[in-house]
Design a protein that fits this description.
Number of helices: 3
Distance between the termini: 6 Å
Order of helices and strands: EEHHEEEEHEEE
Shape: globular
Structural class: alpha+beta
Strand content: 25-35%
Radius of gyration: 15 Å
């Protein structure tokens, strides 16, 4: 089973923004997304829209209006709601103050399930969502406002 940690991306009064980091990787899934699309001229407009949306989330919090539900009814998987029909960044919106960024990519199919790469990113987030909920129930971590206590020292198996 792969081991995962959470890396803090941004921490302020409005939001705690984290990203999944698989064991053996120094880059988080969000950082991999940034590296893949930062110099891609084809999706530059979409990429900048995603960065702008993240900037607004840092300023205002992870409010529901910034997201489009992507997963199932019983999980927290969302994508940033930008006007783009192509580029997606998947995340777990735990609350208005907690956001866990995943990876993403270009959506060329009707649904993410039809794309092996995108489906894998969503599946990773869905699995991590369950593991995080169990860790919270078992008292391993605590989620309070914009903080996940003991998250920097916790490793999860997904």
């Amino acid at each position: 089973m792969p081991q995962v940690t959470l890396k803090t991306i941004e921490q302020n009064d409005n939001v705690g923004m984290f990203s999944i980091c698989f064991a053996g990787n120094s880059e988080s899934e969000f950082e991999k997304f940034l590296m893949e699309f930062k110099d891609n001229a084809t999706y530059n407009k979409d990429f900048n829209a995603i960065l702008l949306a993240l900037s607004k989330i840092i300023d205002k919090g992870a409010l529901e209006r910034f997201f489009r539900i992507e997963g199932r009814m019983n999980d927290h998987v969302s994508a940033l709601s930008i006007d783009s029909r192509k580029l997606r960044l998947y995340c777990l919106r735990i609350s208005d103050q907690i956001l866990i960024l995943g990876n993403g990519g270009v959506k060329l199919s009707r649904t993410y399930q039809e794309d092996e790469k995108l489906s894998g990113y969503v599946l990773d987030l869905q699995t991590f969502d369950k593991v995080l909920l169990n860790a919270q129930k078992n008292g391993i971590i605590t989620i309070e406002k914009n903080m996940i206590t003991d998250i920097e020292s916790s490793t999860f198996e997904i």
